[in-house]
Amino acid sequence: MTHRLAGGLLIALGLGYTFLYLPILLLIVFSFNESRLVTVWTGFSTKWYGELLRNERILDAAWLSLIVAACSATLAVAIGTLAGVALARYGRFRLRWLFAGLLAAPLIMPEVITGLSLLLMFVSMDQVVGWPASRGFGTIVVAHATLSTAFVAVIVQARLAGFDRAVEEAAADLGARPATVFWRITLPLIAPALVAGWLLAFTLSLDDVVIASFVAGPGTTTLPLVIFSSVRLGLSPQVNALAAIIVLVVSVLAAVAAWANRGRFA
Amino acid sequence: MTGGREHSLMRAAVLGVPWLWLSAFILLPFSIVVAISLSVATDAQPPYVFGPVLDNYRLIVEDTLYLAALGNAIRIAATSSVVCLFIGYPMAYAIARAQPRWRGPLLALVILPFWTSFLIRIYAWMTLLRPTGLINQVLIDLGIIDAPLQLMNNAFAVHLGIIYAYLPFMILPLYASIERLDPSLLEAAADLGSRPWRRFLSVTLPLTLPGIVAGTLLVFVPAVGEFVIPELLGGPDTPMIGRLLWTEFFNNRDWPVAASIAVALTALLVVPVAILQHMLAPREEAREVNP
Is residue B196's pLDDT more than 90? Predict the structure, then answer.
C-alpha cells in the first residue's frame, strides 16, 4: 500500500528538499562571485571572504554575539531547569496555572511584544531604581535568557516526565538528602536535556534580531543586528560569504553530533 | 522526617528562583506595557505621561489602518500555514514511511536550515527575487520575459518567506504523529476493502489531526506577529501588525500606541492560542501514556 505511493512521495521529498536547500546553495555559490552585484556572475574569487575577515565591525559583532549567546544560554538552563523540575515534580503547587502561563508566554508571544515589553520594563526600572543605567550586554543577555528559559523548561519537563520517580524516592529512602538527590540522581538523569536546552538557547540567542533591536544599546551591536542593517540597504557579497561560513560551521557541528549519536536512531 | 526542613528549603528554592525571574521579566514588563497603553504620548523623556485614558485603544479600533494590518497579518499567516501543510504533509509522510535508518538523516535535513541563520535564509530569497535577481535574470536570458517581474516587496514574497522559514515547524509535529500511527489499522481497513484514498481520509487524516493542529499553530502564531519577513520582502501593500507596532515605536516614537497594539494582539491572539493549547494538552499526555 505504501509502495504504490512511493513514487509520488519521493517526488514530494525531492521537491521539498530542493525548496529548502536551493536558495542556500545558490547563496554559497555566489559568495565566490567576483562581482559586487552578487547575482551577476563575472568570475571565481575568494575576495569577499578576505574582506569579511578584515571587517572589524562584523568580527566584533560576531564575538559579542557568541558571548551573549553563551551567557544567556547558561542562565536559561539554570532557571529553565528549576522551572522544569517544579512543573514535573511538584504537582499542583499554588498558582501553578500562572507559573506555567508566564513560563510559556515567550513561546506564543510575537517577538515584537516580548522585545517591546522588556525594553519598557528596563526603561521604567532605570527611572525607579537606577538599573539598568545603560542598555547593552546585560539587557540583551537577560532578554535572551527570558526567551530561552521557556524552551529549556519544556525540554527538561518532558525528559523528567519520561522517568520513573522511584529512583529519586529510593535514594531518599536510603537516607540521601534532598539536595544530594537533586545533584546525584535528578541532574545526571536530565543531563541530555540540559545539553539540548543549552544548544537550543544558544542558537535562539545567536539568531535573534527583533528582541535585540529593542533592548540593545547604541554601543552593543550583535551579529544579527549588523546583518539586518546591511541587508536592509540591499545586497552585500560579504553577507553571502558570512552565510557560507555559517552553513559550513553548522553542517560540521551537525555531522559531529550525528557521529557522536551514531546508532541511537536505529 | 530528618530531611523535612531541608526538603521545604529545597522546594522554596526550586519554586522561588523561577517565580522571581518570571515576575521580574515577564509579569512586570507586561504590566508596564498595559500601564503605558493607558498613557498619553508627549515629547518628554520617556515620551509618555500616565493617564489613565483609553484614547490609544479608541485610535486603534477607529483608525482602519490598525485593523487592516491585523486582518492582513492573519490572512497572510493563515494562507501560509495552509500551504505549509500541503507541502509538509507529504514530506512528513514520506519520512515516516522511509526505512528506519533513513528517518534520522532525513529529519536532520529538515531541522538543519533552522540552525542556520533566519536572517540569512530570508536574505537568500532577496538575492533570488530582486528585479536584478537570479530568477528574473534567468527568465530574461531565456527570452521568456523582456522586463523584470516584480517578485519582491509584495504579498507573494511575504507568503514565500513565511512558508520557507516556517516549513520545518510544520514537518516536525506532523512526522511525530504520522510515525506513531499504528500500521495495523490501515491494514485492517485494507482487508475490509477500503481503497487507498478512503483509508487516508478516514484513518490516517483523523489520527494525525493532533500533528496537523500543532504544526499549523507553530506556523500561524509566529507568522501573525512577524516583523523581519514583511520588512525585508514586503512592500507598502502588505502592512502586518508586527511591523506596524515596530513603526509606531521606533519611527513615530509613539510608545502608548505601540503598547496598546501589544495588549490588543495579546488578547486577540495569544490568549485564544493558549486556551486552545491547554485544551489539546491533556489528550496528548493520555496518548503518551497508552503505549
Answer: no
- Whether residues B97 and A86 touch (CB distance < 8 A) is answered with no
Tell me how many degrees the CA angle A40-A46-A49 measures, rounded to the nearest 5. Answer: 105
The answer to whether B48 and B42 have CB atoms below 8 angstroms apart is: yes
Asked if A248 has any chain B CB less than 8 Å from its own CB, the reply is no
Does residue B46 have a cis peptide bond before it, meaning omega lies within 30 degrees of 0?
Answer: yes
Domain contains B4: no
- A58 contacts chain B (CB < 8 A): no
A82: chain B residues, CB-CB within 8 Å = 13-15, 17-18
| SS3 state of residue B210 | helix
Alpha helices in chain B (DSSP H): 4-22, 28-37, 55-62, 64-96, 100-115, 118-129, 134-141, 155-180, 183-191, 196-199, 205-207, 209-224, 228-233, 241-246, 255-265, 271-289
Asked if the bond preceding B282 is cis, omega within 30° of 0, the reply is no
Q: Name the residue range of residue A177's domain.
A: 41-261
Distance separating alpha carbons of residues A137 and A61, to the nearest angstrom: 12
Q: How many separate domains does chain A show?
A: 1
Please, which residues 138-157 of chain A have a Cβ atom closer than 8 Å to chain B? 142-143, 146, 149, 153
Strand partners for A69: none
Lowest mean pLDDT among B27-36, B181-190, B212-221, B259-268: B181-190
For residue B1, is pLDDT > 70?
Answer: no
- Residue in chain B nearest A246 by alpha carbon: B116
Domain that holds residue B271: 67-289
For residue B52, cis peptide bond before it (omega within 30 degrees of 0): yes
Would you say residue B155 lies in a domain? yes
Count of structural domains within chain B: 1
Measured between alpha carbons, how far is A130 from A120 in angstroms, rounded to an integer? 14
Q: Backbone phi, then psi, for A187, in 5-degree steps?
A: -60, -50
How much is the pLDDT for B10?
87
- In angstroms, the separation between the Cα of residue B79 and the nearest Cα of chain A is 18
* CB-nearest partner of B258 from A5, A116, A203: A116
* CATH number, domain containing residue A113: 1.10.3720.10
Q: What is the least distance, in Å, from the CA of A121 to any CA of chain B?
A: 5
Q: What are phi and psi of B50, to 5 degrees?
A: -65, 135
Instruction: Spell out which residues of chain B touch residue A1, defining contact as CB-CB under 8 Å.
Output: 186-187, 190, 196, 199
**pTM listed for this prediction:** 0.91
For the segment A174-225, what is each residue's pLDDT rounded down to a tens digit?
988 888 888 888 899 899 999 999 999 999 999 999 999 999 988 899 999 9
Q: What is the CATH number of the domain that holds B270?
A: 1.10.3720.10
ipTM (interface predicted TM): 0.90
In a domain, A27, yes or no: no
Q: Determine whether the interchain pair B6/A177 forms a contact, defined as Cβ–Cβ distance below 8 Å.
A: yes
